[in-house]
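Practice problem: predict the structure.
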Amino acid sequence: MASTTPRSATTHDDQPLIPPPTQKAKPRLVVGMALAQMGIFVSLLTPIVAGLTIKVQSLVGPDDAVTSLGIVSSAGAIAALIANPVFGRISDRTTSRYGRRRPWLVIGSLGLTASLLLIATAQSVAVVAIGFFIASVFANAALATFTATVADQIPMSQRGKIGGLMGVMQNVAILGSAYSAKFFATQLLLLFMVPGLVGLLLVGVFVMVLPDKRLPRRPPSEGGLRTVLRTFWVSPRRHPDFALVWVSRFLIVLGAALFTTFRLLYLQRDLALSNSEAAAAMATGVLLYTCVLVVSAQAAGWLSDKVGRRKPFIAGATLIFSAGLAMLVQADSVNGFYIAELVLGLGYGVYVGVDLALVIDVLPSPDNASKDLGVFNIANAGPQVIAPGLGALLVNIGGGHNYGLLQGTAAAICLVGLLAVIPLKAR
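Answer:
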């Protein structure tokens, strides 16, 4: 197996300021990490999964919802695109006596909860867009530092299993978001604030058990503009595996985002369901998706650690997920939608069970883990900038109901993402 152990580039003796972990993580840390993952994502994903759609429809009506939702979603994605690597860089260089990750987890979670209140009480689409922009900034301050704690605290021998657990908890958060929409669809304040407060509480639990070591000294400055530019850059020539995994993630997330951004509208328009029927069908679909994902993610992460390989799992997962998206093109009933969700859950479960472990394996430097993971997160946020506009364009071709073209395009994009995995040297 080719070595993928990252080397430090920030110290004079070429050793990381805080050495990578070698001992297995304690159970309470793993539990706290899982709860924090669910907490951050249930706060952030409730607006993305359904909250923003319902809020925007309450302000402009269903006919103008596609365009308005695209504007709001893009505002949040642009914020994520910028904030994640920036706060990752700041976290890597934080010398607080409370640690380098803990302060930003607290600040990000508090800011996100306050921003959700702004969105819930907004009286115009413009204020909703501003609120979601701010919410995304704070959410990504927390996310950038949280993801780095996996690299900080989890040894390579556990990364597949723990990475799979993180993927499971993220999708449990999606399930919670879907059911929040089902139960609070007519109570917008509760729809945004209940998940936000739950998330704040769960991150607080993780902060209490996190053994966040204080950085012994600040890494040397790289100087002004050079530092800013390096915040958003990892050389693909020096780190080709990192670049290939980045491209693959970008395309797969773009394919998935094209569907998830417009899933509720698809159920309302293409399957002719009312708002309440669509919210209930989405909740059931996400429940089926999540049940399959939980099993497949844990199985894939465990097996990946056992065989010492990541690449075949990513390739297989991408094929299955693309097939699920293609099935949606043919779905003409709620039952067809449910079957497609089962296939999508299987594919994405295998993907999330292995993907985070692969990403951490190919990180360029442990001292810059949060920054580099922030750069990698551009592959998550960038597609969400593109997806609302591209999705609205595809849907509006031929009269505004072309969800088949949307889903077929999403499947094709995921298949192209598979091609980026093939040249990986990492196994």
